[in-house]
Every structure is written in structure tokens, then in C-alpha cells.
Known about the structure:
371 residues, alpha/beta, eight-stranded mixed sheet, two-stranded antiparallel ribbon, 12 helices, disordered C terminus
Amino acid sequence: xxxxxxxxxxxxxxxxxxxxxxxxxxxxxxxxxxxxxxxxxxxxxxxxxxxxxxxxxxxxxxxxxxxxxxxxxxxxxxxxxxxxxxxxxxxxxxxxxxxxxxxxxxxxxxxxxxxxxxxxxxxxxxxxxxxxxxxxxxxxxxxxxxxxxxxxxxxxxxxxxxxxxxxxxxxxxxxxxxxxxxxxxxxxxxxxxxxxxxxxxxxxxxxxxxxxxxxxxxxxxxxxxxxxxxxxxxxxxxxxxxxxxxxxxxxxxxxxxxxxxxxxxxxxxxxxxxxxxxxxxxxxxxxxxxxxxxxxxxxxxxxxxxxxxxxxxxxxxxxxxxxxxxxxxxxxxxxxxxxxxxxxxxxxxxxxxxxxxxxxxxxxxxxxxxx
Length: 371
């Protein structure tokens, strides 16, 4: 028995032993509610099934399950990210664009939904039809319907995109929709882009490391809504601010070992008249987190409102809007929930949404009110 044979067997034994130990640790290891470096839920345990489709998906499900529980996974991911971002200046995430001067942007194409129609003209037509149907449903009940599309950071700060991303591109469904809304006098639409572009010369209106506008951007958008919603916005002295630090969502997506925080001023109403009710469950197929937020001023002279919104509206806007209504019910959804509108009987319904959703999603089925 030569030494080469012994060495080969020993090497194989070490390799198999390492695989066994790693697998055993992966099975025993509980990654918790979220994967620390990726800020997402770990893959669920794979399930056996007799259905052919489930059997085909089983190997991939096993791989995802063990991959998320691999020992030292977070350290490996963060080390690789540090090397790519800090060493070579390339993004460690295919969804994050590294811009100039520390600005990060979301690659909208990677956010598009799977299985939805991709033709921009057809996407635009579907959404325009859905919005008109919602407006007609409201009109028959004496309710105003106001659209509040939220511009992407790229539209407000294109100068911080990499040069390669600044070239002309074909109009997206969202681009087409905004152009039609600007030319269409039938739908009530608040165009936030001009106000945000003008305001950025006086201070930052979007986070550098996050997809959202910052508190100042949220308040500028709130003020831009005043004429369409029939109120006079509050002056700057009605608000107070506290310094905070944000770990932006784009920053988290890079999986850096020590992602830098971004300082900002958290702005709130100094002496709010609107009082927040306890969160309540929402019955609806398209509600994002199944929770509605309701504010009440108790002032019967004011109108009542329902706002269907996404995460942008939570940044400074909702609390400020609540000061101008007897009741403001805020529901996180891209859909149009007739049950919610019927329950609150508002005078106005506001539909706030990030424009990138138009590119990647078809209107939810619940967004088609029945005649």
C-alpha cells in the first residue's frame, strides 16, 4: 500500500467529513426570522409531494433550504460584498446600481414581476383602464378620486447615475402613463416630479442609500397635494425634527459587513390635532400587511379620506395629511378595496403608488370594481 493511495483516501475522507459536518450543522442551525446580511426570510423546509410540478421543484427547494443555513454564510457573503464594492467598485447585488458620490439606485428592470405582460403600451393601457374604472366607481357615489404616482429616484437625480445609465432608453409603461395623465383632463392627477426637482436645489429630497424619498421629500409631496385635496398645507414652523440615522434598503441589499448609516432629520407635526386609532385588520385580497392606520381630528367641518398607499407615504406624508381631514384611513395596497371605501364613506380616495410598480405588475384583480 503506497503513500499516494493513503493520501488520496485520507483526502476523500476529510472532504466527505467536511460535507457531513456542514450538512449536519445546516440542519441543526436555526437562522432566525431574518438572514442578518440579507434582511430576508430564510427558505422554508422542502416538502415532498406526489404532484409532478412539486417533485420537479423539490431539488431547488432543498438547495435553497440548505444554502440559507450554511455555516458561516453571512461572513462569506459580507466578505465577498466588501471585496466587490470597496475593492473593485462594482455592485454586489444585481438589483443595486452604484451611482456617483455614494448614491445608490434600484435597477427597476430587476424588480419587474414574473409572468406579467411586458409590452409597455399594453401595461400602460391596463393601468389606465383600471384607474378610470376606479374613478367611475367613486364618481357614482359622489367620491373624488385622486392619483398620486411617486417618481423614482432616477427621475429626480439622474445626474448621479453612472454615465452608462444616463443614455436614452425606450419609454416604459410608467413613462407612458405619466405622459397620458399629464395630457388627460379626465383623471385627477398630482404630478410630484416638478415640485421635487425644484426643491432638490435647496436640500436633499431622496435618501442616497434608500429607494424612498426622505422626510423633506415627503413633506414637499404633501404640500403639492394641497390644491387637489382641498386644503392649505401647514407652514414649516408646524413641524419639528429630530436627527436620526438610516440604514437604507439599497445599502442592506449590498450585504456589506459594516454598511454606513445615512444621517437624516425625522420630521413630525409639532402639535398634532389628529389622533391615531389602534391598528385594525383589513379584509381585502390585496392588502400588503393587513393593517390599516386611522387618524381622527374630530373636526366635522373637514372632509373624510381614504388613502391606498405604499411605503413612500409612510415617510412624513401620512401624519401631515391626517391634520386636514376629519378621518384619514390609510391602507397599504396597490389595489382598490371597495369594502374599505364603503366602510369609511370618504369624500375623497387617494391612490399613491411608486411608478415602478406600473412597469412590473398588472392591475390586481381586486382593482376592477364591479358595476
